[in-house]
Specification:
By secondary structure, the protein is mostly helical. Helix content is 71%, strand content 0%. It contains 6 helices and no strands. The radius of gyration is 14 Å and the shape is globular. The mean pLDDT is 92.
């Protein structure tokens, strides 16, 4: 699915995002909540207002999970198995929501990376996020 070059590029991108994980993750979540308001229902127990501690903390977790997945892309299903079970069985997140968040992550990365978010980077990130989402969604029934 991903060439070796794309895999390396994905790792480089996510490694660069780690220092600003709270910013990237919370912005992507806020973008999703604004664009797709029904996604807020999964977060009704948290303060998801802009710059809230809950939003920034969860955003950071998302970016860290993506970076971890990028570094372990050859074993993505194994790496994400605990997250997949958690989101499917405990949180009961419908898989469609992962696709919505993916879109918001891509837009957020494009805003933050500027000219470095090339068409090749965009395509690689899109493929990676699709694979990441598919693994997260595979336990949902």
């Amino acid at each position: 699915m991903l060439s070796n070059f794309e895999k390396e590029l994905i790792v480089q991108i996510w490694d660069k995002m780690i220092p600003v994980a709270e910013d990237i993750g919370s912005e992507a979540l806020l973008r999703m909540f604004t664009t797709f308001p029904k996604t807020k229902t999964y977060f009704s127990h948290l303060d998801i207002s802009p710059n809230s501690d809950h939003l920034r903390c969860h955003g950071k977790k998302i970016v860290q999970a993506l970076a971890d997945g990028a570094r372990n892309i050859s074993t993505l299903a194994t790496t994400l198995a605990p997250l997949s079970r958690f989101h499917a069985y405990l949180l009961r997140i419908h898989p469609t929501n992962f696709k919505l968040l993916n879109h918001c992550i891509i837009v957020t990365l494009a805003c933050h990376m500027g000219d470095n978010f090339t068409p090749v980077a965009h395509a690689a990130i899109d493929k990676f996020l699709s694979a990441f989402s598919a693994v997260l969604a595979e336990k949902f029934r």
